[in-house]
Amino acid sequence: MRAPILNLLLIANVAGASLAQAQTATPAPQTAAVSPDAIKQREQELEAARARQKSAEEAQAKLKAEITALGQDRTQLNQQLIETAANVRTVETKIDEAEARLRALNDREQQMRISLDSRRSDIVEVLAALQRAGRRAPPALLVRPEDALQSLRTAMLLGAVVPELRGRAEKIAGELGELVALRKTIATERDQLAADRDKVRNDQTRLTALVDERQRQQAAREKDLDAENARAIALSRQVGDLQGLIAKMEQDLQSAARAAEKAAEAARQAEAKAAASANTSAKSGPAAFKDRSRTTPAIAFASAKGLLPLPVNGNKIRDFGGSDGVGGVQKGISLATRPGSQVTTPCDGWVVYAGPFRSYGQLLILNAGGGYHVLIAGMERISVNIGQFVLTGEPVATMGSTSQVASILATNASQPVLYVEFRKDGTPIDPGPWWAANEGEKVRG
Known about the structure:
- The radius of gyration is 31 Å and the shape is elongated.
- The protein has two domains: 2-21 and 40-218, no CATH class; 224-441, Glucose Permease (Domain IIA).
- Helices cover 52% and strands 13% of the residues.
- The N and C termini lie far apart (75 Å).
- By secondary structure, the chain is an alpha+beta fold.
- Strands 1, 2, 4, 5, 6, 8, 10 and 11 form an eight-stranded antiparallel beta sheet that branches. A three-stranded antiparallel beta sheet has the order 3-9-7.
- It has helices spanning 2-15, 36-70, 74-118, 120-133, 145-157, 163-221, 225-236, 242-252, 254-276, 285-288, and strands spanning 314-318, 333-337, 342-344, 349-356, 362-369, 372-379, 381-382, 389-390, 395-398, 417-424, 427-429.
- The chain is built from ten helices and eleven strands.
């Protein structure tokens, strides 16, 4: 009789700490000699590492060949850049959603463990009664919820369970069954999360190579690029506000001035087209974004309301017109992001500034034409240069692991925050009307 009793005590532990699968086993004493099994395991791990390295090298060689094949075809390069950046942001979203689901599932599992642990004595009593009532004792049990569940089902199938015991047993079996199913769901979610993380790493590697090629081509066209960038940083130290910075760049910096001229010319052409075709529907706009070879904005910025994507995946923590936290008014929006998130352009435009600026961290300013400027700040690294024309959805920067902007723009210094501001003729405006209402309405360049 003592053996069944010992089994019952084991089952009681299932309802308590064993349900948490606490890793409390005492490590085995280390010995000087290495066992053959350990040697074999190390050899297998080394072989797996070599296989991963070989696979990575082959993938890198294939990617290099693909990029070389693109050559100077800017249209194809733009296509690859925008599509790969979109893939990265899509998987980033999936990872965020999976992590949220896992947190909820883990919380539910913890609640179930606590509930079962609080009724340990009831579980022991029911299992003991079932074991006594059965024609034969249930099989020896391991300390796992699956084993406790199987024991209950086996005992009930023996047919010798009195009605009052059956109700209690079925309730316990139901809870254990839910816990087992919950653990399977958690395992599936974790496997999918691991696969998504592998995919985003691969896509980020591809994106980095494509961005490097884009900038290499840009540098080849702009021989004095480094000197221009250095001069831009020097000029930025001479001004005290964003409006002054924009004016200084477009007045004194050659590449930024050319970008401003192109933006003004593009705006004039857009106005002329609108005047010549007054009945043009705003719905014709998104189709123009599909032309990856364009070198001017697809549509006038003022006509892009309701079409533009947010430049990063994240949660809005401050909105235009709200409090900036220090008694002032927020002139743009602030988005809390994941560390290392990909930043893409919300619109077509010319880069008139790219670099550090006062309390904004790394700052990117786009001239979108028609007197509109888009300011994006708080990134760790910017991957475009002054004078460069960028398309909607094109990768332009990456977030760091902590906030790069001043506390006036962030609520948590340990979390990356992207700040976005729209300006019309130098005055901050509400960007809300320009954002796409849902994913299906966004343009991707």
